[in-house]
Design a protein that fits this description.
The chain is an alpha+beta fold. The chain has a single domain, classed as Clavaminate synthase-like (Double-stranded beta-helix, 4-Layer Sandwich), CATH 3.60.130. Helix content is 22%, strand content 30%. Strands 1, 2, 3, 5, 14 and 17 form a six-stranded antiparallel beta sheet that branches. The chain has a four-stranded antiparallel beta sheet with strand order 4-15-7-13. Helix 3 packs across helix 4 and helix 3 crosses helix 6. The longest helix has 11 residues. Bound molecules: fe (ii) ion. Fe (ii) ion binds next to loops.
């Protein structure tokens, strides 16, 4: 948890069974149920076919998922997300992770007005129907900033922010890191700091996901920028 608080991300390895993933997850977080999670609190991420074409369900298909915050469709997304690969794809299915710290440093240097606009209250709408008002950057505790972003049909943005989305996407693309997970490998991240994504895949890729709040409280979000 110290590393998650400092760097926002920890990689894990050797979690080759559902029981191992569950045991690890329960050591570090109070699991938050998800509509798609199973009775043990973990969500099985695999291709379910046609139902994955419904809004917000793309994670259970085979297509690319662009950078997003997990559960940004609800008012308060979970702080922690653990994703472990139990069976890699035949091709593709790499994970792409972006540190919000790098994104904010990038924007602070190249487009500070974008950072300011995306911190304006109520300039993003996340969720079904009208969604609920939020914003890309929200003040957190300890001088930190909570990042919250999605780019699918469950997101809409005010014109004040719309014009800066290309700059934000550019910053995400520049700082995105790609990893191919083998069986038992995964990551634990601060979901209020890191964005995650995945490339399209073929084959019978199987991952497990846990969402929750840390058992040992840790500061959430992007640390204050060095001035
Ligand atoms: Fe996700």
């Amino acid at each position: 948890m110290a590393q998650v608080a400092e760097r926002g991300l920890v990689t894990v390895d050797g979690l080759v069974s559902r029981a191992a993933v569950r045991a690890f997850a329960r050591r570090i977080m109070a699991l938050t149920p998800h509509p798609d999670s199973d009775r043990d609190g973990l969500t099985t991420i695999q291709n379910i076919g046609a139902p994955s074409r419904q809004p917000g369900m793309a994670g259970l298909g085979t297509g690319e998922l662009v950078a997003h915050t997990e559960r940004s469709s609800i008012p308060r997304p979970p702080q922690l997300m653990l994703l472990v690969c139990l069976r890699p794809a035949a091709s593709g299915g790499e994970v792409r992770l972006t540190d919000g710290r790098a994104v904010t440093e990038h924007l602070a240097a190249l487009a500070p007005e974008a950072l300011e606009a995306m911190a304006l209250r109520g300039t993003a709408y996340y969720g079904d129907g009208g969604g609920h008002p939020s914003q890309v950057f929200t003040p957190g505790s300890n001088g930190r900033t909570l990042l919250r972003f999605r780019q699918d049909e469950l997101s809409r943005f005010s014109p004040l922010v719309d014009r800066y989305l290309p700059a934000l996407r550019e910053a995400i693309a520049v700082h995105q890191q790609t990893a191919r997970l083998t069986a038992g490998q995964g990551y634990l991240l601060d979901n209020t700091r890191f964005l995650h994504a995945r490339t399209a895949f073929t084959g019978d890729r199987l991952c497990l996901r846990a969402l929750g709040e840390p058992l040992t409280p840790a500061p959430a979000g992007i640390p204050a920028l060095r001035s």
